[in-house]
Amino acid sequence: MNPRASYLVRMGLACAAALVWLAPYAWMVTTSFKPLSEVLEHPAGLVPKSPTAAAYREVFSAIPVGHYMLVTLAMAVSIALLQIVLALPAGYALAKLHFAGRRVAFGLVLACLLVPAQVTFVPVFLLFAKAGLVNTMPALVLPFAVSALGTFMVRQALASVPDEIIEAARLDGASEATIIYRILGPVLAPTLVSLFLVSFVFHYNDYFWPLVMTTNDDVRTLPLGVALLREQGTGMRWHIVMAGNVILSLPVMALFAAAQRHLVRGVGGRA
Q: What pLDDT sits at residue 138?
């Protein structure tokens, strides 16, 4: 196969894969602009016959979208920043320091990647309930402040950083904290940005833990608010649920559009 034909085949496969991923989102957006009667009559139709923004007006009148959005953004940003702050020294120790049990410690970090949050939520919930932190922001943030995935990503990225940089900093009198946060931090910027994005998206969309730890609107997140749209009125109001999901996904889409090249570099393990 000549190079041009090979290029066209790769582009065709890439476009087909993109369509598979984009088609559900396109259906969600178009459904949000349909009246309920059209949704029930032609649920698979992509083009609204009578486009209307009534579903969006209903979403904003049914739930406090602004409050839920602020809580969700504050929670996701706080978790992502804490994970970066703590993953940097942990990854640095596993990659650049020599101590007994380093391999065992790294093995435990990898093992933690295999443990889902649902396995430990009962003891964690009881701990926060006993401390009186249910329905508070710390209860949403603190259980995820340490990330095994973040430690792994930082450790792998640091493996490609020459030791001479660290030795030179030590000769200049830099402390370990200075080396980690002021010298290696900027070097690992692509990895840290990708860690921030992965963490932000995961916790921004998280439904399970906020459902466990909240019982009122004080710190209720937007995914829980969108789920409440299904329970109001009679029947399944698909167009309103889709409008809520479009609003929910907009910040994530904007964030990825602004920083996608850092995500690709970070996932590829390049510092």
A: 93
Amino acid at 40: L
Letter for the amino acid at 189? A
Please tell me the pTM assigned to this model: 0.84
* Total residues found in the chain within this entry: 271
DSSP sequence for 209-233: HHHHH-SSSTT--HHHHHHHHTTSS
The reported pLDDT for the residue numbered 154 is 93
- Cβ of 20: how many Cβ atoms within 10 Å? 9
Give the C-alpha separation, 176 to 146, whole Å: 20
Q: Per-residue pLDDT for 234 more than 60?
A: no
Q: In whole angstroms, what is the distance from residue 251 CA to residue 70 CA? A: 11
* Residues whose CB falls within 8 Å of the CB of residue 143, separated by 6 or more in sequence, listed in order: 117, 124, 128, 209
Q: How many CB atoms lie within 10 A of CB 137?
A: 15
Helix locations, 33-116, DSSP H: 36-41, 54-62, 65-96, 102-112
Token pair recorded at residue 226: 């969108």
Condensed to tens digits (0 to 9), the pLDDT of residues 113-144 reads 888 877 888 888 899 999 998 899 999 999 99
Tokens of 144: 């995820």
Which of these, 242, 147, 158, lies nearest to 202 by C-alpha position? Answer: 147
Angle at 46 between CA 41 and CA 49, to 5 degrees: 60
